[in-house]
Specification:
GART_AS; seven-stranded mixed β-sheet; Methionyl-tRNA formyltransferase; Methionyl-tRNA Fmet Formyltransferase, Chain A, domain 2; alpha/beta
Length: about 300
């Protein structure tokens, strides 16, 4: 069996790890994932999806805050692994670790060289792409710049958001990895260099990027909301209070950007720079997520046509 170290963090990574474990072809010597983090308003400490899966299979787990220069790095290098498989790990791999194994490959959730970086699924949606995919590539020191082993694509629909695409791409990446890794290891697949002149980047979403700019066209607002759901979630302000927008739909109508142009018992329509969007699911500050009907029956009942979202 091929002895590997697996590195990954979210559900996307866990799907790929499960595929490797189920294949019976790979001996996972250890799993490396991000440290447990405090999440949510209650600051509940939560383990990554990869750690939770590793625990069920009783795999050795390493969680360095930073792999470079850590004691965990030395321990990993002593395991005698043939190679490394990574998927949404969230850290650079030290050069000495890459040099210590026969191969190191990454499952990246974009069609490289497009959307190198930590948030490729988010940006594919935000930018209104019609398709996305996964790329299996060799690991190098530069971010997502290694030679490409294989890729596969799928269409993006208006019903997709970050959550649905993460799930679709996780299964696509799992299947592509299991299909192509044996051929790559046997030498029958020759990796192809990326065209760096066509590279684009997808850095982690900043807090500033989460805020809705109502001057933009309605399609851009729609794409921003679904490109940030279920995390980190886009937001706007009304009457000085922040409101997260979990789901919106495109709507007819025109008005000044951010202006309420329609309100009834079931609908709240906001004008954008061109066109409008109808709010579907929102979350006022300090409140749970709610359907727009509940918002309008509660704290949103004071909103009137002509009022503005900031």
């Amino acid at each position: 069996m091929v002895k590997i170290i697996f590195m990954g963090t979210p559900d996307f990574s866990a799907t790929i790890l499960q595929g490797l474990l189920d294949s019976g072809t790979y001996d996972v010597l250890a799993v490396v994932t991000q440290p447990d983090r405090a999440v949510g308003r209650q600051k509940t400490v939560q383990s990554s999806a990869v750690k939770q899966l590793a625990l069920t299979h009783r795999l050795p787990i390493f969680q360095p805050e930073k792999l470079t220069g850590s004691k965990e790095l030395s321990e990993l290098m002593e395991l005698g692994a043939d190679g490394i498989v990574t998927a949404a790990f969230g850290q650079f791999l030290p050069s000495q670790l890459l040099a210590a194994v026969d191969f190191a490959v990454n499952v990246h959730a974009s069609l490289l060289p497009k959307y190198r970086g930590g948030a490729p699924i988010h940006y594919a949606l935000i930018n209104g792409e019609k398709e996305t995919g996964v790329t299996i590539m060799e690991m190098v020191k530069e971010m997502d710049a290694g030679d490409m082993i294989a890729s596969a694509s799928l269409p993006i629909s208006d019903e997709d958001n970050v959550g649905t695409l993460f799930e679709k791409l996780a299964f696509l990446g799992r299947d592509l990895l299991l299909e192509t890794l044996p051929a790559y290891l046997s030498g029958s697949i020759k990796p192809q260099p990326q065209d760096s002149s066509k590279a684009t980047f997808s850095p982690n979403i900043s807090p500033e990027a989460e805020r809705i700019d109502w001057q933009r066209p309605a399609r851009d607002v729609f794409n921003q909301v679904r490109g940030m759901y279920p995390w980190p979630v886009a937001h706007t302000f009304f009457a000085g209070k922040r409101i997260k927008l979990h789901e919106v739909s495109l709507a007819a109508g025109q008005g000044q950007p951010g202006q309420i142009i329609e309100k009834n018992r079931k609908n709240l329509v906001i004008a954008a720079g061109q066109g409008a969007v109808s709010l579907k699911t929102v979350q006022p500050a300090g409140k749970p997520k709610m359907a727009i009907v509940d918002f309008l029956n509660g704290i949103g009942r004071t909103a009137e046509v002509g009022d503005f979202f900031e």
